[in-house]
């Protein structure tokens, strides 16, 4: 089954996976304070604005560190609002509402999640017909297609590396790359799986 891009979170670990039929020549790299999805060296040129973006950022907030991750450019305003002291729910809702779903041929939903050092985790999506933000107490997944509303999901990862690998290896079609994040006693750890 093809579900497109997806996030899974809950509540101490999370992952984001790029799945794509149209733009498979992408990878995730580490840049300064973010994990970034971008084209590989052999990717054809494109002017598609949804191909490259920061997919995961860990930011310092007044309440401690928070990891924010998702499928597009909305990750940056979510992270910026968190840094300014917005509660995670408000940062997700206002950023997703402002940017809305992707105006492509498929009306692709925007999806995102946060994990805080305080133990709070949330998952969110904005679709053509809804904005949904939910608190997560067990592993929960939302995807751009098919599973475009948050639902419980079996996810066993306990570390960032395990989360990236498990997300990448899930049997959903057209895996391209994945990022993982996990809360530890020393803050957040992140990991990348580019299928290499």
TrEMBL record:
Enumerate the InterPro entries for this protein.
IMP_cyclohydrolase (IPR010191), IMP_cyclohydrolase-like (IPR020600), IMP_cyclohydrolase-like_sf (IPR036795)
Its pathway is: Purine metabolism; IMP biosynthesis via de novo pathway; IMP from 5-formamido-1-(5-phospho-D-ribosyl)imidazole-4-carboxamide: step 1/1
* Pfam families given in the database record: IMP_cyclohyd
> Which reactions does this protein catalyse?
IMP + H2O = 5-formamido-1-(5-phospho-D-ribosyl)imidazole-4-carboxamide
User: Example GO molecular function term?
Assistant: IMP cyclohydrolase activity
| Enzyme class, first EC level, given as a word | hydrolase
Q: Indicate the segments forming the Inosine monophosphate cyclohydrolase-like domain, all copies.
A: 2-186
The task this protein performs is described as: Catalyzes the cyclization of 5-formylamidoimidazole-4-carboxamide ribonucleotide to IMP.
Which protein family is named in the record? Belongs to the archaeal IMP cyclohydrolase family.
Q: Which HAMAP family match?
A: IMP_cyclohydrol (MF_00705)
Provide the protein name.
IMP cyclohydrolase
Q: Which organism is it from?
A: Halostagnicola larsenii XH-48
Q: What is the lineage of its organism?
A: Archaea, Methanobacteriati, Methanobacteriota, Stenosarchaea group, Halobacteria
